[in-house]
Design brief:
Strand order of the largest sheet: 3-2-1-4-5-6-7
Shape: globular
Largest sheet: 7 strands, parallel
Structural class: alpha/beta
Radius of gyration: 17 Å
Strand content: 5-15%
Number of strands: 7
Order of helices and strands: EHEHEHEHEHEHHHE
Amino acid sequence: MTQVFTKDILQGNVAFVTGGATGITAGVARAFAEHGAKLAITSRKLENLDAMQQSIEAMGGECLTIAADVRDFEAVEKAIAATVEHYGKIDIVVNGAAGNFLCNANELSPNGFGTVVDIDTKGTFNVCRASFEALKESQGQILNISATLHYLATPMQIHVSAAKAGVDAITRNLSVEWGRHGIRVNGIAPGPIEDTEGMKRLLMPELKDKLTRRIPLQRFGKIVDIENAALFLTSDAASYVNGVTLVVDGGQWLCGTSFG
């Protein structure tokens, strides 16, 4: 794909990325490093973090790894503090840690529902709250990774739909409350992104052709599509964009299908 942004568009920025070791958010983290940002990434599994750190450093980037569960506010506070101690500041926070699985609502346990809400919604709040002082100091920004699942209705995804609706509410509310501190808060709602492990697990092969035909652009998204959206929203090109959740789904949800 043609290079869209200049290589130094995020030069001098420090980005704290949750869920930054795998999937879409790993792509975002890698894109940030490729465009000049220094990284701190968190995940629950240290082995995933180590592999990502090696990948970033192999391409000449800087990457601090911190094992932390976003559901644990104290652990998040420590991760934020460690990042500030290491780099001196935080400019960008990306909330990408998420949980998902397919389950009919009538078969879903309260614990299963609560676990996804705890990771996606409560985890997003925990990271935003813990990073407030650092972002206030740098007049930085937050980017929340959401979904399109809750825009209409998605069978077997009530837990994630509820969780991501909460994430969108956090984006809107914090953009209003924290804007006066110079903190921008935006989000991205990916549609079906085919080159992810989650899509491989969640999408039955026989449904792919049917879903593709219902996407106006007639293709599934790629992680790079989300990377480019993230680079735009966190760059100076979007300096007056605040409180927006940018849908990146090829127009799918407008056609009566919600999947992301």
